[in-house]
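Hey, I was hoping to borrow your eyes for a little while. I'm sending you its amino acid sequence along with the backbone structure tokens. Take your time with it, there's no hurry, and the full record follows here.
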Amino acid sequence: MIVGFEVTSRAVYEKLYAKPTWPGGESGATIGIGYDLAHHDADDLALDWPTLTSAARSTLATACGKSGAAAKALIPSLASVVVPWDAAYQCFRGKSLPKYERMTADAFGGCLDLPPLCFGALVSLVYNRGAGMVGDSRAEMRAIRDLIAAGKLDEVPAQFQAMKRLWTVIGLLNRRDKEAALWSKGLRG
């Protein structure tokens, strides 16, 4: 599901996302399957992308830690880098997904005891938004955390829905709908 949200499919990835992109807003230059360079450094690139050439990693390192307009401005200088699908999927499955699973487990106590589809909905949320719980934009995430702790699991889908107040982007609205539906399906077993 996360791959679908991030790049749609292998065919779409190879057509639109094999080179670094800038998704907009405060995002950084993004490679692979939602790998935002604003949140990584050169050491991460070496560990997470061993199949890329050192020259490609060096070029990408110039965008590490940069977000928003600064990241957007760098996209033309990154155009020589092509991240093959196999490398992108390998990084997603072997590096990114386990990292976000750990972040999810840390942010939402008790979530490892949830049905797998419920946990998957939370991982998708954290993959998209991060695990932070501070501020008004994170009210629904705190509510989800508290509902899990209270055992009120049937009330969680409404919080995914309520989170839609933050966006007008159709893709993000659909993502929250699908996460809510995945959670509900997980509860039904």
In short: The longest strand covers residues 30-31. The beta strands are 30-31, 35-36. Residues 92 and 98 are 9 Å apart (CA to CA). The chain has ten helices and two strands.
